[in-house]
Amino acid sequence: MSMVIKETTLETVLPKTTQSLCPECKKIITADVYEEDGKVMISKTCDEHGYFKDVYWSDVELYKMAESWAFDGVGVENPAIPVEKGCPWDCGLCDIHLSHTSLANLDLTNRCNLRCPICFANANDAGYVFEPTFEEVTKMLETLRAERPVACTALQFAGGEPTIYPRFFDAIAKASELGFAQIQVATNGLKMANESGFTQKMLDAGLHTVYLQFDGLKEENYIQARGRPLLETKLKAVQTCRDTSPSKLSVVLVPTIMNGLNDDQLGDILKFAIENRDVVRSVNFQPVSFAGRIDNEEREKGRFTLPDMVDRLEKQTDFISREDWYPVPVVTPISEFLSVMFGEPQLAFTAHPHCGLATYLYIDEDGIATTIPRFLDVDGLFRDLLELARQSEGKKFKAPMKIKAFNLIRKHFKKDKAPKGLSATKFLRKLEGVFSSTAKEATAEISWGLIMVGGMHFQDLYNYDIERVKRCVIHYAVPDGRIIPFCAYNTGPEYRKEVEKKFSISFDEYRARHGEDACPEGKL
User: Fold this and answer.
1) 348: helix, strand or coil
2) Per-residue pLDDT tens digits for 140-169
């Protein structure tokens, strides 16, 4: 029996039906998913509010490729909530959720030193302050580490702007003390760029990665999306990560992409990452999620899906093509293999196949980028690894598994397609950490010396698919002990509003506790 993955229960043919939400009343309704003019569309009708139609994925062939890698997870052994109303109205995690937490978000505050029109969380717009106490933060961290069968190992402090949290460095240190193997902060970079020594303090406290909001290399991108010039700030923030000691703090560039705003910038952003690969380990493009009501014309104009990302990068670079991309769950055979080899469940990225796409770049000594699928048969390797795991399960001696895995990599390595200076042996050395440590360290190990480029498309009410919510691997920890999937927390039921109001205080009360100068960068 598989330890962390199982065959998917997803319906994998088109057309098909799924469950969605009405964008107006948020009632659960049936949606049709079907092909139209080479795209995958989603349409639904609410008895009260009428007909809605949107693009699910803008390329049907990429949609089918992604779905061929669908796996379900085994869920959690200690769910906090029983299902009563049905997904997504019983989050906590509930007892029908199909994935454990691959990455946890923990909002330290909804205050911010920017006022971005495309943000999920903003105290000035909400009218109250949500800022958990350090004791509440500690309890949320402990809840994540207590998750079973796999304790959460990757954490991202978020907000608002988490760097303005009064005990920000203490929160990082507590996460490190509790054993999180990957600690990130999602930040706009203002404190890093403008406060001397701030980035070094983050590293000293135990931070591993800066998840840096980075919308392009044109100043107008920031003026339109963020309300002010910020390009110089972003460049300075990256430089501060380069200047930390004894090691450089890793950076993930996070551009929010919208048609007509910055979709012409994807290639330049990735080239910037390659040029700064001594600190930039990844680029994670995020197609915009439309919050609130938006008319059909505006939504159609701005809608940007993951295949659009693939299209722009193919056109804007000379080293990536549509054949280089895979969905997030493609790596689950590694998780199953490691689980069998170590004899205990390991971290598994059993996301819905249409939540994200990614590929890896190998950069040679001349700075030339080559995608890994060009010189490695990814399909063959991962399917062989899964078969090896299944054959090895239940056997007493697991030592030969690592040797067999390395032999599989050699088998699927295409020597004639490999970049200059890269042999199968050298490539194996880069992957050594994946097969000699637990899976919780695998992501960090495989990323070193390589650049990952990918996209994660969070849902809005127009393209909402409840099957995606059931398989979500990016979750929020909240002060009342629940763990809530991303697209339920921010969209649909909007648990964010419920949680923040429950644990919020007024502006006046916040200033009374912390003083009028508690947030000198802005109002709150």
Assistant:
1) coil
2) 999 999 999 999 999 999 999 999 999 999
**Does residue 521 form part of some domain?**
no
Angle between helices 400-412 and 332-342 (to 10 degrees): 160
Q: Closest by alpha carbon to 339, among 471, 439, 473, 441? A: 439
The whole model's pTM is what? 0.94
Angle at 140 between CA 134 and CA 145, to 5 degrees: 125
> For residue range 226-260, what is the model confidence (pLDDT) as tens digits?
889 999 999 999 999 999 999 999 999 999 998 98
Interatomic CA distance for residues 57 and 295, integer angstroms: 19
Are the CB atoms for 110 and 518 separated by under 8 Å?
A: no
Count how many domains the chain has.
Answer: 1
User: Nearest CA to 303 among 266, 270, 263, 265?
Assistant: 263
Tokens of 206: 């135990």
Question: What share of the chain has pLDDT > 70, as a percent?
Answer: 92
Query: What's the domain range around 210?
Result: 5-509
CATH number at residue 496: 3.20.20.70
**Cα dihedral sign, 78-81-84-90:** negative
Neighbours of 516 (CB within 10 A): 8
**Is the peptide bond between 373 and the residue preceding it cis, with omega within 30 degrees of 0?**
no
Six token digits for residue 329:
């769950």
- What does each C-alpha distance from 501 to 17, 103, 131, 487, 515 come to in angstroms? 35, 24, 11, 19, 22
Q: Is residue 276 part of a domain?
A: yes
Is 519 a member of any domain?
Answer: no
